[in-house]
Amino acid sequence: MKKFFLAAILAVVIPVSAAGQMKVIINIDSDITDGQIIPKEIYGQFAEHLGSCIYGGLWVGPDSEIPNIDGYRTDVLEALKTLKVPVMRWPGGCFADEYHWRDGIGPREDRPRMVNSNWGGTVEDNSFGTHEFLNLCEMIGCEPYISGNVGSGTVEELAKWVEYMTAPDGPMARLRAQNGRTEPWKVKYLGVGNESWGCGGNMVVDYYTHLYRRYQTYCRNFGDNVLYKVASGATDYDYNWTEVLMKNIANHTDGISLHYYTVKGWNGSKGSATQFNAEEYYNTLGKAVEVESVIKRHIAIMDSYDPENKVDLLLDEWGTWFDVEPGTNPGHLYQQNTMRDAMVASLSLNIFHKYTKRLKMANIAQIANVLQSMVLTKDDKMVLTPTYHVFRMYNVHQEATFLPLTCSSMTFTDANGRECPVVDATASRNAEGAVNVTLTNTDLENDAEIIVSIAADGKLSVTGEILTSKDITDHNDFDSPSKVSPVEFKDFKVKDGKITVKMPAKSIVNLCIR
After folding, report:
1. Is the pTM here over 0.90, yes or no?
2. Which amino acids are annotated catalytic?
3. For residue 30, which phi and psi values (nearest 5 degrees)?
4. Do residues 438 and 402 make contact, with C-beta atoms less than 8 angstroms apart?
């Protein structure tokens, strides 16, 4: 096995040359034997009863002519297995605090209907319920994350739901068996409410903390299932919400959530997902990387109350939010997904890797057909989005040792005064000793020459993969499903322990070094 000395990567961006090419030097010069492990849950997903995320996205029913396995779309199932989805949050979102779980069990033809008043007034037939979700998680090998109804539900309702899912015996276990499932499921993550400051009840934080303490008391462990309880946390810049949570419930929770969207603003147009200029592109990236300062401030508050790091932070909603595609229901949040979204995903994941001492999960919104989704579906067709490809390229970092970066990259400043790196990078070492270095060139026009120096015994073996496109607005649709797709990357040379990379503008490259 080759020996790598890789702990710090120093990226120095030299001003753009006359030929329009940035010069970047990356030094890999130290070794880490006991570094922070990147939790696989950083690559979590979120599925809400919203638009066609569930119906048509994940689920078509067993009688559908669309190829399916027990009602689940075959093409989407295979795509999610390839993605190595570690955890999925369900049934919301805002929908969670209007969802009554008993409506989603028993014979599907007998389940009551409801109006999804949060998302477009769509009639919800409850054909996808507890069994359908938890069975899906088992099929793709991911951990379920249940969002409990605190806003319109009762303590008894949530307590009985936990019992129904996880108890090996007793009245709720017998009811579960009547509905076709004898063995209990394993359910680790339980969210006690969602956005309780907003659609989850418009509560003030002091009131919510008292309500949380009551609800979590009656959500018990059954058999060998141990719940990890998550309190409904802050949105964006509401640092007071986090402070009051830590003051009042730190001894009663395993984690608190945080929501952060890359959005132009909540009033008026959020901008087109596919039609944007260079300034709008750079503004979007500026907003995306601002999540780092937000995470740092929330963590600082948590550190002051919890220096032993017993309470985790979960960014269980994040991603881009643009205007819906023309002609679609405004309440269904269906948006396209371009190379710009891929850049947002890459920069965001790079940031998340740095803070996993406290940040233990992130769930992008959402898995199918909603906001910054992994897949888009229409009838029997499916396309993988640029964001999907980023998540697939980055899954090499799951449960690998994080290798800290010291990056002096040249930055750009967006129209709102936010700074963003021109070239960004993240690195990790897996259990087999291979080092993955993922590079992001955000510049729309300029290529970069990157020289990677690495101290290693023996000859380096390097393979590469790249995601890029001709135009930053490029996206995959049902007529051109592979317009933005990763391909093998060979534009590098290895000599004397150095890797010289010719990295195109607006591209994401992963190098696997052995």
Report:
1. yes
2. 195, 317
3. -135, 170
4. no
